[in-house]
Automatic annotation (TrEMBL):
Its EC number is 1.1.1.300. It is an enzyme of class 1 (oxidoreductase). Belongs to the short-chain dehydrogenases/reductases (SDR) family. The keyword Ribosomal protein does not apply. Signal peptide: none annotated. The gene is Rdh10. One of its GO terms (molecular function) is all-trans-retinol dehydrogenase (NADP+) activity. Pfam families: adh_short. The keyword DNA repair does not apply. Pathway: Cofactor metabolism; retinol metabolism. It is found in: Endoplasmic reticulum membrane; Microsome membrane. This is NADP-retinol dehydrogenase. It comes from Alectura lathami (Australian brush turkey).
Length: 246
């Protein structure tokens, strides 16, 4: 504990970090890397599925390969990583599986069909897996679903909601999201949405008729919030093609 202006002292312990490069969209790559981890580090007791990509194109303008890539990385990879590490967790009845999804896995918006579909898939996978663990009475294996609002990482740079609403719903700082997620994991919280307003949006979407949801989206400026982001991506792509003489 710090006092008199001293900095907080970290515990004097030796930590070792291992890093591996793995294309999580390719199941054989995941299984091979998982085997390396087991041999070089040991069994994994906490699995955090966090990898995510976005194509940034309207559906009819999006190449099929990018749609497949989004689904493989954002959704299918969860199957491969879980199949790689869950068996040992089941044997020990100990572990924690964390799915970093998105608020767009609970409700959707226009222009990012592949991303929304992949995140809805990740949420569905996580919920079904959680029910399976409960049914098997594996109470030592915890699950946490993380659904943040727009995070200020540059992934969705240009995304805009209604300007009058923006001060109340600014992009979230990555550090804040990490802190909230870690708190949820350490307290075995099944689900965390940030900010808390996302719970209300999800609830309203569940009980209101579709046309009412459309009206709510239009009021918030959420109906076309991704359009500026997509336009920026398209412009950047065009500039790169012109630059490279394509």
């Amino acid at each position: 504990v710090a006092g008199d202006g001293e900095k907080d002292a970290l515990p004097s312990c030796s930590l070792q970090v291992y890093t591996y490069t793995c294309d999580v969209g390719k199941r054989e790559n995941v299984y091979t890397t998982a085997e390396r981890v087991r041999k070089e580090v040991g069994e994994v007791s906490v699995l955090v599925n966090n990898a995510g990509v976005v194509s940034g194109h309207h559906l009819l303008e999006c190449p099929d390969e990018l749609i497949e890539r989004t689904m493989m990385v954002n959704c299918h990879a969860h199957f491969w990583t879980t199949k790689a590490f869950l068996p040992k967790m089941l044997d020990m009845n100990h572990g924690h599986i964390v799915t970093v999804a998105s608020s767009l896995g609970l409700f959707s918006t226009a222009g990012v069909e592949d991303y929304c579909a992949s995140k809805f898939g990740a949420v569905g996978f996580h919920e079904s897996l959680s029910h399976e663990l409960k049914a098997a009475e594996k109470d030592g294996i915890k699950t946490t679903l993380v659904c943040p609002y727009l995070v200020d990482t540059g992934m969705f740079r240009g995304c805009r909601i209604r300007k009058e609403i923006e001060p109340f719903l600014p992009p979230l700082k990555p550090e804040y999201c990490v802190k909230q997620a870690m708190r949820a994991i350490l307290t075995d919280q099944p689900m965390i949405c940030t900010p808390r307003l996302m719970y209300m949006v999800t609830f309203m979407k569940s009980i209101l008729p579709f046309e009412a949801v459309v009206c709510m989206y239009r009021f918030l400026g959420a109906d076309k919030c991704m359009y500026p982001f997509i336009a920026q991506r398209k412009q950047a792509t065009n500039n790169n093609e012109a630059k490279n003489g394509i």
